[in-house]
């Protein structure tokens, strides 16, 4: 029993270091420095970096079929004449936005509780109605821009 309680206390003490502050400043040579230790006394503009907990979502890696389809589209793209650079950049942005919206929608559908930082900087849980509203917005965006 003593061993178990001792291990629990030791584990609790070790987790305290995970909540350390992070400082950011520019040193004398002009480099930006991030550290868990406060800057030297001569540094005038030192900021505390807001390190907050973020939700981690897993993204599935592309499958072999996707890779072969991508290589097939590369050969088709080589046979067609090149479009203007501005025209090729716009779909890439849409693709990134679609991917981000899909990830967000998937996260909202699978998350039971979701917390976010409000304008005042305090943590609040997303209400069910706000969650449904955000899910509807992401779904509408996907239907409009990603099909």
Q: From the structure provided, what is the oligomeric state, counting identical versus distinct chains?
A: single chain
Task: Estimate what percentage of residues fall within beta strands.
Answer: 5-15%
pLDDT under 50 segments (min length 5)? Answer: 73-81, 83-92
Integer count of domains: 2
Largest sheet: 3 strands, antiparallel
Signal peptide: 1-20
Region (Disordered): 61-95
Domain DUF4124: 10-58
InterPro entries: DUF4124
General description of the model:
This protein has helices at 2-15, 64-79, 85-110, 128-145; strands at 22-26, 32-35, 47-49, 115-117, 123-125. The protein is an alpha+beta fold and 147 residues long. It has 2 domains: 22-51, no CATH class; 53-65 and 87-147, no CATH class. The strands form 2 sheets. A 3-stranded antiparallel sheet has the order 2-1-3, with no helix packed on it. Strands 4-5 form a two-stranded antiparallel sheet. Helix 3 packs antiparallel against helix 4 (128-145). The model is unreliable at 73-81 and 83-92 (pLDDT under 50).
Question: Descriptors for this entry?
Answer:
signal; single chain; alpha+beta; 3-stranded antiparallel beta sheet; DUF4124; 147 residues; 50% helix; 2 domains; DUF4124 domain-containing protein
List the helices and strands and how they pair.
Elements: H1 2-15, E1 22-26, E2 32-35, E3 47-49, H2 64-79, H3 85-110, E4 115-117, E5 123-125, H4 128-145
Antiparallel strand pairs: 1-2, 1-3, 4-5
């Amino acid at each position: 029993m003593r061993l178990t309680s001792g291990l629990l206390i030791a584990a609790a003490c070790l987790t305290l270091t995970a909540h350390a502050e992070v400082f950011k400043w520019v040193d004398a040579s002009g480099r930006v420095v991030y550290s868990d230790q406060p800057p030297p006394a001569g540094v005038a503009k030192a900021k505390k970096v807001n390190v907050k907990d973020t939700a981690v979502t897993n993204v599935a890696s592309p499958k072999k079929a996707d890779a072969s389809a991508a290589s097939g589209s590369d050969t088709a793209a080589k046979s067609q004449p090149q479009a203007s650079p501005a025209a090729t950049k716009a779909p890439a942005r849409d693709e990134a936005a679609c991917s981000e919206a899909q990830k967000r929608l998937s996260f909202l559908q699978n998350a039971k509780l979701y917390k976010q930082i409000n304008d005042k900087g305090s943590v609040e849980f997303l209400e069910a109605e706000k969650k449904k509203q955000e899910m509807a917005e992401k779904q509408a965006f996907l239907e409009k821009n990603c099909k």
